[in-house]
Amino acid sequence: MESWQLTAELILDEKAALSEGPVWDHRSGRLLWVDIEGMRIHHYDPVQGTDRSIQLDQRVGAAVPRAEGDGLVLALEHGFHLFDIATERLTKLADPEAGLPENRFNDGKCDEAGRFWAGTMNCENSDPTGALYCLEPDGSLRKAIDGVSCSNGLGWSLDGRTMYYIDSPTRQVVAYDYEPAAGAISNRRTVVTIPEGEGIPDGMAVDGEGMLWVAQWGGWRVSCWNPQTGERLGFVRVPAAQVTSCAFGGPDWDELYITTARTGLSEEQLVQQPHAGGLFRVKTGVKGRPACFYDG
Ligand SMILES: O=C(O)[C@H](O)[C@@H](O)[C@H](O)[C@H](O)CO
Ligand SMILES: [Zn+2]
Description:
Number of helices: 1
Number of domains: 1
CATH topology: Neuraminidase
Order of helices and strands: EEEEEEEEEEEEEEEEEEEEEEEEHE
Low-confidence stretches: none
Subcellular location: Cytoplasm
Binding site for substrate: 104, 106, 124
CATH class: Mainly Beta
Bound molecules: D-gluconic acid, zinc ion
InterPro entries: 6-blade_b-propeller_TolB-like (IPR011042), Regucalcin (IPR008367), SGL (IPR013658), SMP-30 (IPR005511)
Helix content: under 10%
Family: Belongs to the SMP-30/CGR1 family.
Strand order of the largest sheet: 1-22-21-20-19
CATH superfamily: TolB, C-terminal domain
Largest sheet: 5 strands, mixed
Main location: cytoplasm
Number of strands: 25
Strand content: over 45%
Shape: globular
């Protein structure tokens, strides 16, 4: 059934420790991404081929543009913050896991209503002490999913009635019924299982046909899955093992940007994958959808 294979090309040899969370900002034509362990927010300009980054003083799990202005909302090691790029000023909104020092925030994404969803992971072990949170545009926060080990990819179906979610060690993508007005989830079920020996699922993007593009940490690839059937339609080879996330972007929305990591790799492994920690890209032949921004 696997009908196609593509290969991603290196576009930025950044050698970031843990490059993650790509978001295409169509307003600026730039890709926002983070280096979680390097504590940096990056902006990549594909026209110039240049990348600029801002150093923070704590780990940054996810960054998403705000709908108004050019600020960002961040899921930092120590909670949710607004960030003003020009002044580099941080404004703390909420730190729901201040009492859990082993945890930090990881992947996050906005839904159509401009809510920012982001989850946590235990950095010391795979105990399910993490959770998925939803930050409403008015700044209120609620816990949506409990008992998470390593909160990762998020996405929504084309009709906005299904939310997809990845807790990496489960090797699964699960789906919930999604009630868009309230942002409420229910009826959890498994829609994709990553085969054993192919690493674990990490970040994810949903394309314009509703298919799921799932990065495989330890799997050297991003695979494309039909969530209706659980079948893999094809995959993108990436010349780095720790493939962390992906997002559609580019002027025609048909380019998949892919992030990778160096962290945890031995000297020997780094010889095999010298561009680990780089940014990669592939033309997919399918279009993605505009990213949603934070409405608060
Ligand atoms: O890329 C991420 O989402 C996390 O920040 C990583 O740390 C890995 O997923 C995790 O460590 C895998 O075990
Ligand atoms: Zn991730």
